[in-house]
Write a structure and sequence with these properties.
Number of domains: 2
CATH topology of the largest domain: Immunoglobulin-like
CATH class of the largest domain: Mainly Beta
Order of helices and strands: HHHHEEEEEEEEEEHH
Strand order of the largest sheet: 3-2-1-5-8
Strand content: 15-25%
Distance between the termini: 81 Å
Number of helices: 6
Mean pLDDT: 81
Helix content: 25-40%
Shape: elongated
Radius of gyration: 28 Å
Number of strands: 10
Largest sheet: 5 strands, mixed
Length: 314
């Protein structure tokens, strides 16, 4: 290799490094954003566990890519055809073939192990959750009820989406929440992007051999839009709901109101009335995220335990 070729390689390395540095700096991303490699910000430890799996998988893939790219460029730079002499052959090199077989196998096993560990953690259902909620989907809205909380008339605390009521799923932070999913008509899907978790909701999940229960813990207060992520008919795109994560003390206050009667109406507080009564800023504004609900006179289904045509928010 001549002097010109010897100096060309370090210069190429410097230029490549400079281009990479400029590319990273020009994105304007923070260190946290760079390490997430495009993975969105989650609000549960389960989401963070999946983010870590994603981050290290990408790092491993990039490391393999760098090695492969390096070998390609090395071959191109130093093993160009210069004479008619046949270069040294490696097709019967047993140690090299063993390495080619063992290294990918080890990589697959390691990736499978960490994927299985993460999946088991995300799908774990420890006994005795702090809060249990039934999420019932129907064309084209949502019902959320809490079997462990009862109104003065003995009914579970329930919120049903309607033309005047956004379906609000109010949950406590730093608490184990267990979700039971079902549908009253067709297949829908319970999806909250900040949970990094989606699961279909089936009518009669026990007959469809579906695991319709999962758990998570929300790390911080906030409002998060939930969506149906399974095409379910005419107004599928409008079948949204809202998760309102409150601190434990606010959630207890909310449930205390939901399990008592509103003196102004003589009926149990609705979700919107309870949040307004709490007066805790934007977090307690009934329409903080999803806006005005769509006209549910166009609905084709009904929530659980309520007659057709009477989907009234409560």
């Amino acid at each position: 290799m001549g002097l010109k070729e010897a100096t060309r390689v370090p210069r190429l390395v410097k230029v490549t490094g400079l281009i990479g540095l400029v590319g990273v700096a020009a994105t304007g991303c923070t260190t946290d954003e760079v390490m997430r490699f495009g993975w969105p910000q989650g609000v549960t430890p389960q989401a963070e566990s999946m983010r870590q799996l994603w981050t290290w998988s990408v790092i491993a893939a990039l490391a393999v890519g760098v090695i492969v790219w390096g070998l390609i460029f090395w071959s191109v730079a130093f093993h160009r055809k210069k004479t008619e002499e046949l270069p040294r052959q490696f097709q019967y090199n047993l140690p090299l073939e063993i390495i080619y077989s063992v290294v990918p196998f080890v990589m697959v096993v390691v990736l499978f192990y960490f994927t299985a560990v993460t999946q088991n953690y995300v799908l774990a259902k420890p006994a005795k959750p702090d809060v249990t909620v039934n999420a019932v989907s129907f064309q084209w809205n949502w019902e959320f009820n809490y079997p462990d909380y009862r109104t003065p008339d003995g009914q579970p605390v329930r919120t049903v989406g309607s033309s005047s009521e956004i379906p609000l799923l109010v949950l406590p932070t730093d608490s184990a929440v267990e979700y039971h999913l079902s549908s009253t008509d067709v297949i829908h899907s319970f999806f909250v992007p900040e949970f990094h978790f989606k699961r279909d909701t089936f009518p009669h999940p026990e007959k469809n051999n579906q695991d319709n229960v999962f758990q998570n813990t929300i790390d911080r207060e906030g409002s998060f839009v939930g969506r149906c992520a399974e095409l379910c008919g005419t107004y599928h795109s409008m079948m949204n709901f809202e998760v309102r994560a409150l601190s434990k003390d606010k959630f207890d206050q909310y449930m205390q109101l939901r399990t008592s009667n509103n003196p102004d109406t003589g009926r149990p507080y609705t979700a919107a009335e309870a949040l307004a009564k709490m007066d805790c800023g934007e977090l307690c504004t009934p329409r903080a995220v999803t806006g005005v609900p769509f006209d549910t006179e166009r609905t084709g289904g009904k929530p659980s335990g309520i007659g057709a045509g009477s989907a009234v928010g409560n």
